[in-house]
Specification:
Layout (H helix, E strand, L loop, with lengths): L1 H13 L11 E4 L5 H6 L1 H9 L3 E6 L4 H5 L6 E4 L9 H11 L6 E4 L6 H10 L3 E5 L12 E3 L5 H11 L28 E5 L11 H12 L5 E4 L6 H9 L3 E4 L3 H8 L4 E3 L13 E3 L7 H12 L5
Parallel strand pairs: 1-2, 1-4, 2-3, 4-5, 5-6, 7-8, 7-9, 9-10, 10-11
Helix pairs in contact: 3-7, 5-6
C-alpha cells in the first residue's frame, strides 16, 4: 500500500507530461554554494558562456565574490544553502517560486537523492532539466537529459557540454583575479610555501598535535618562506595569496581547488578520486608522516634546482 501511494505521489508531483522545447539560452546551474563545487563547474560555465549561453548560478555568500569576477556568469542567485541542512528546503522553495519559468535550461549537478533539490526543480519549471543519475542508479523522470556520473566531478560538467555540442572545452579551472588584491605587490625572496589544515568538517581537518609538529618541521627549512593560511577578509585575497605560492600543503577543501586553478604544486593529506586536485604536480601524503619536510624540499628543489 505504501509503495503504491509513494508511486502515485511521485507520478503526480515529479513527472512532467508536457515537456517544452527550449527557445532561449538562459541557463541556471545548481550546486555552486561551496568554493570547491563552484570551481569544479568553471569549465562548464566557460564552455557555455563562450558558446553564447546566458549563465546564472545558484551560489552563496562564500562563492559570490569569485563568481562576480567571472565574465561568463550573468548573475549569481544567492540562496546560501551551504551546509545542506534540512532547513535549506525553505530557501529552495523561496528560490523556486521567485525564478519560476525564468530559465530555458536547468543543470542539476547533485547526484544524491535530496528532496530539496527535487522540489526546487519542480518549482523552477524550466523548459529543460539536465541532471545527474542519482545514487544507486536512480533516475528521476522529471529530468529530461540524464548524465552518467564521471570519475571526477569536473568531468560531469564536460559531459553536460557534450550535450550542447561543445566538444572541446578548456578543462582548466577558471579563477579570475581581475582587480588588485591584498597580495598583488607581494615581493618574494624565497619560495613561498603555504599550509592549511582546516576543512569544513572535523574529519577532514588536521589534529592540533599533528599540525603543531608539521609546522615546526617546515619552519626549520631556512631557505623557504613558510606561512600558515589564516582567515582572509576576502576570498579574492585568499586566491591572490595562493596564486603567489610555490607549494601548497592542504587538506581536502576549497584551498586545494583554488591551488589547482593556478596550477600550484600541491601536497594533500588525503582525498578521494572524485575531488582530487588537478594541478600538474599533486602528492598525496599523510601530514603525520615523519618525512613530510623532505617531500616539501624535494618538490621545491626539482622546480627551482638552479636557484637553490
Amino acid at each position: 500500500m505504501r509503495k503504491k501511494l509513494g508511486y502515485l505521489i511521485g507520478k503526480i508531483f515529479l513527472d512532467r507530461k508536457n515537456k517544452k522545447t527550449p527557445k532561449g539560452k538562459k541557463v541556471l546551474i545548481n550546486d555552486c554554494q561551496k568554493i570547491g563545487n563552484y570551481i569544479f563547474k568553471t569549465p562548464l560555465i566557460k564552455g557555455l558562456g563562450e558558446a553564447g549561453y546566458e549563465v546564472y548560478i545558484l551560489g552563496s555568500k562564500y562563492t559570490l565574490e569569485m563568481a562576480r569576477e567571472n565574465p561568463y556568469i550573468k548573475d549569481v542567485i544567492i540562496d546560501n544553502s551551504y551546509r545542506k541542512k534540512s532547513t535549506d528546503i525553505f530557501r529552495n522553495i523561496k528560490t523556486g517560486f521567485k525564478y519560476r519559468n525564468k530559465f530555458d535550461y536547468y543543470i542539476e549537478m547533485v547526484g544524491s537523492i535530496y528532496l530539496r533539490e527535487i522540489i526546487l526543480m519542480k518549482l523552477l519549471n524550466p523548459r529543460m532539466i539536465i541532471g545527474m543519475k542519482r545514487k544507486f542508479g536512480k533516475i528521476l523522470k522529471m529530468i529530461d537529459v540524464v548524465i552518467n556520473p564521471q570519475k571526477h566531478i569536473r568531468e560531469n560538467g564536460i559531459e553536460v557540454l557534450k550535450y550542447f555540442n561543445i566538444k572541446e572545452p578548456n578543462l582548466n579551472y577558471d579563477i579570475h583575479l581581475n582587480r588588485d588584491h591584498k597580495y598583488s605587490k607581494l615581493i618574494k625572496r624565497k619560495p613561498l610555501v603555504l599550509y592549511n589544515g582546516t576543512a569544513s568538517t572535523k574529519s577532514r581537518s588536521i589534529e592540533e598535535n599533528v599540525e603543531k609538529r608539521l609546522i615546526e618541521k617546515l619552519r626549520k627549512i631556512s631557505w623557504i618562506d613558510f606561512r600558515k593560511i589564516e582567515r582572509e577578509k576576502s576570498i579574492l585575497d585568499l586566491c591572490g595569496l595562493i596564486s603567489q605560492s610555490d607549494l601548497l600543503l592542504t587538506v581536502d577543501t576549497g584551498t586545494s581547488h583554488i591551488g589547482s586553478g593556478f596550477n600550484i604544486p600541491i601536497i594533500i593529506d588525503r582525498c578521494d578520486e572524485q575531488v582530487y586536485p588537478k594541478s600538474s604536480i599533486v602528492l598525496e601524503k599523510d601530514f603525520n608522516d615523519e618525512n613530510i619536510d623532505k617531500y616539501v624540499e624535494d618538490i621545491l628543489r626539482s622546480l627551482y634546482e638552479i636557484a637553490i
